[in-house]
Each structure stands twice: as structure tokens, then as C-alpha cells.
Amino acid sequence: MARLDLNRSGEMEVFVRVVAAGGLSPAARSLRMTPSAVSKLLARLEARLGARLINRSTRRLTLTPEGQVFHDQAVRVLADIDEAERAVTSSATPRGRVRVNASVGFGVHWLIPLVPAFTARYPEVALDLVLTDQVVDLMDARTDVAIRVGPMPASSLMARKLLETRMAVVASPDYLARRGSPGTPDDLSAHDLIGFNFTRHLAGWPLLTTDGQKVIHRFDSPVTAGDGETARALALAGSGLARLSLIHIQADLDAGRLVKVLEPFNPGDIEEVRAVYVGHGGRLPSRVRVFLDFLAETVRPKVGG
Fold first, then answer.
1. Pick from 270, 244, 269, 275: which is nearest to 258 by CA?
2. Counting beta carbons within 10 angstroms of the beta carbon of residue 253, is it exposed (0 to 12), middle (13 to 18) or buried (19 or more)?
């Protein structure tokens, strides 16, 4: 008779988490284990299987061919286990804490206004909101869902599209009355431009030339901001021109508090806004799943509004 091993699903869970996190240490933090305990568990798993699953180095972690096969199968097995559990607990009320990371602008203008409706629908789910324009590592920050704008690099993270947006160069009517409105990108040298001071931000504004070529207009800023909401406040105060996402400033444009400039030179790049999370297949805690479903339900109808 085959040996009954009650630890196999736990080993699979740790192995899949290590692959998703990209390393032993971040996986250990998310699992609330020590890195040495995770390392010993993986060694025991490899010994039992008689195959090396992961190639480890000081800088990166890669799967062996055998590890890739085992990973894909483990993901399916764990998804089946979760599905089996949900089948008998589907009537259970979602409960627990959902840690959400979002940019300051999205959080202020989109996420916070939705909180009362969400908590009314799911009173036993608590939201832990962290607003920052810095990209966080979901595993390191123990974050369940992050709202991200723009291209998504290849990763093991899952993503759910919420909406699309584009950027515009704007200024307050007061600033334009004092300094005039730029007619072409060449006129920007005579204006104060509000930049950003976080490292991942593009060092310049993509704009079209008079012959339709897209170029990056680089500049030195008299004042910089650490997040989009601060840049918006500076523009509203008349500190200069700012290039901001329409999802953050549409109400200001509609009310005349900000005015678009250089629209003929706007490249019109479309950026997607996504909810990013850790999960494979249907493997999501109900507290996270209902939050993602709520976002998709309440945010999407606003697109184009």
C-alpha cells in the first residue's frame, strides 16, 4: 500500500509560493516562515521526488524543466483543492482583511468613494488601504491587490483590467492668464513644468513634433512631486504645467479648474488600469475575490463617463 503523506499539499503550496515570489526570502515572509525552514522544505521535496526543481543563485531563481512540470501540476492540484473547499463553503460569508495598494490619485478619486458601498455589502471584510505612487512588491508588502497603470511587465502575478485612460498636459486658467498658453512643444522652454521625483517615472513628456513624430521632451522642473495627486494640486495652485492622467483630473477639466494645452501634439497613448494580485487559476480567498469582483462591477461602468 502506498505511503500516506499528509504534507504533500503543504509542500506544493510552499513551492508555488516560492516561484510566485521569485525567491526564498520573500516567500518565507509571506508564509510567516523562516528562509531556512522554506529551504529545508524544498530540499525535502526535491529529495522525495528525486529531481532538482529550482536552480538557485544569489541573484535569481529559475525552474529546472522538471520544476516547471511540477509547478504547473501543483498549481492545478492546489486549485482543485481550493475548488473542493469552496464547493462546501460557498455559502460562507467572506470575512477577513484585504490589503490594497493604489496610486494616490486613483485612491482619492476612484477607490475611496467606493469604500462605503463595499463595506455595506461585505461588512465582515475590512479594507487596509495604502496609497503611494511607488510600485510595491506584493509579497514583500503582504498586499492582496494592487492597482497599477500602464504596461505590465512579465511576472507570475495575475491581472484584471478595470479601465483605460490617457494623459494630457494641463494648467490652471490663472497660470495661463499670467504666462500664456504654449502653441507647440518648443514653447515649453518658456514655462514652468511640474515633474515627478520617483525613480520609475519617465524622465520627460512624450509629445508629437510638428511633423507627427513622437519624441520625449526632457526638462528641468522648478518643483517636483512624489505622486500624481500632489502634481495635480500644484497645477491647480498655478505652479505650472503638468502632464496627468485623465482619470485623475476629468472633474477638474469639466469644472474649468484645469485646461488642456498642446492637445494637437498629444500622442494619445492609451494606458490600462489593472487590479494586480497573486493567484493561480481560481485560487483566491473569498475576501479577495469579492473585492476584485466589486471593482470590476463598479469601476467599469464609469469608463468614458
1. 244
2. middle
Query: Which single residue is written with the C-alpha cell 500500500?
Result: 1
Average pLDDT over residues 126-151: 82
pLDDT in tens, 150-180: 776 666 678 888 988 899 999 999 999 999 9
pTM equals: 0.64
* Residues 65 and 51 sit within 8 Å (Cβ to Cβ): no
DSSP bridge pairs for 243: 169
Confirm or reject CATH 1.10.10.10 for domain 8-89, answering yes or no: yes
β strands within the chain, DSSP E: 54-56, 61-63, 96-102, 125-131, 145-149, 158-165, 167-171, 194-196, 205-208, 214-217, 223-225, 242-245, 259-261, 271-277
Residue % of the chain over a pLDDT of 90: 35
**What DSSP assignment string belongs to 220-240?**
--SEEESSHHHHHHHHHTTS-
* Architecture in CATH for domain 96-165+271-302: 3-Layer(aba) Sandwich (3.40)
